[in-house]
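Appendix C reproduces, verbatim, an entry submitted by the partner laboratory led by Prof. M.T., so that reviewers can inspect both the input and the predicted structure.
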Amino acid sequence: MAQEAPHESKVRLLDAALHVIRARGYAATRIDDVCAEAGLTKGSFFHHFDSKEDLALAAVEHFGAMADALFEAAPSHRAEDPLERVLGYVDFRIAMLQGALPEFTCLHGTLVQETYDTHPALREACNRYMSAHSARVAQDLAEAKRRHTPAATWSPDGLALHIQAVLQGAFILAKARQGPEVAADCLRHLRRYLELLFTHPQPEEKPA
């Protein structure tokens, strides 16, 4: 049997880390758990990573790259109207709520909730990727605002962060209730809110 290439074993470990950390949390994740999930030895693990935190930092990047590719391939990403792209993004997030909880919840949100005070490097890495994702959504929001509601006073950057907050909160509720239904309902409410912002724009505020 052909020997597995080093980069293939590293990807297997990263994929395993995505599942185990999202299922158990960072503190409860052991290197042995990740190796067992990947079907690899601890020798293979330490060939690629110096520690659990080193693995988690690489997993943050791995998850971010996978997410970027997934959203860029979404049909709504190619819509000509930026509002269609925004609403299609929410629809796509709803469609992604399939399978077991570790398969659709966010690694970045899971990690940062647990490690924000104890592992600053992980917090910073998660914040970097979550902020970059929000910034890309904000670009579509800004274009949609210029086209459809130029007099509205809300900020595209602030609205993009609100979308991220609803998503992360929806994942927490899905974990609490052990199913995706509540998350899907939250995102459908988010979609209705976005539609209202663009169909009933807030008038320009006048100085007192």
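The longest helix spans residues 120-148. Additional entries are available on request from the coordinating office.
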